[in-house]
Amino acid sequence: MGSEFVMFSLTPMLIGILASVACALPGNFLILRRQALIGDAISHVVLPGIVVAFLLTGVVAALPMLLGAAGAAVLAVILIEAIKRLGRIEPGAAMGVTFTTLFAGGVLLLEQSDTSSVHLDVEHALMGNLESLVWLRATDWSSLMDPWALAGVPEELPRIAVVCFAVIVLTLVFWRWLKISTFDEGFAQALGLPVGMIGMGLVITAAIAAVAAFDAVGSIIVIAMFICPPAAARLMTNGLERQVLWSVLFAVVSAVGGYVLAGYGPLWLGADDAVSAAGMIATVSGVILALACLFGPHRSRVGARAET
């Protein structure tokens, strides 16, 4: 039993946890800044990045696709900030204009460049296939100390681990700046803080986390984790530090609980097949948010900002 878990379930579960935490951390600040839909915007701009990467390299490989998607995501957040500031319109409107335009451009480029007949892995980038990320060289728990076995770990695991670690470090290093600029932008400007650069850095960090997660878990989990764990955590406490901790806990519970329910839930109900792990993880995060809305101690203060 232990060998089967290590081979088939350990790495997908770890990847789901790391991806969820990497998205939930910046999601806390995006929600407080009313930019929670940035994850949805990024999911739309992945397509043109993937197409451009294929046209430049001529191959369908993970690294070029990831770099292309990341470049498109960074371009999107720059355009969103530029439209918002130069046009003086609401962030939601700026995001809507940007991601629909880039998505339409990606579809047009796909058709006009005659790459529609080539299998560009768009479905994998947007939907993910968490169940396939198994560790075939693992035999049991001792494989965690075996260099030969560790060399066969799915490449998505170290990639998302590095991104998650970077997000945690950036959050800790710029914690004070993020907190001040999020709750009182005028005060942050008076202190001489680069408010514009802080906001840009936050959305770029979120974009990098989202794109890194796309390759492993797909946009379903990404969009859900940007919103559901932070929003549920907001209903549990009125302090920012505790909110972040709650969001990490909810992200981990969603990843583990969703993966287990996806594999064993249908069997418990008498069905023969499993369901999508990504979809079930997103569903569990939504259930947690619904429970927080019903029973959270701060559910009557939805829309109010957390205390600094």
UniProtKB/TrEMBL annotation:
Its main location: membrane. It is found in: Cell membrane. It is a multi-pass membrane protein. The keyword Transport applies. Keywords: Cell membrane, Membrane, Transmembrane, Transmembrane helix, Transport. PANTHER family: ABC-TRANSPORTER METAL-BINDING PROTEIN, METAL TRANSPORT SYSTEM MEMBRANE PROTEIN CT_070-RELATED. Belongs to the ABC-3 integral membrane protein family. This is Manganese transport system membrane protein MntB.
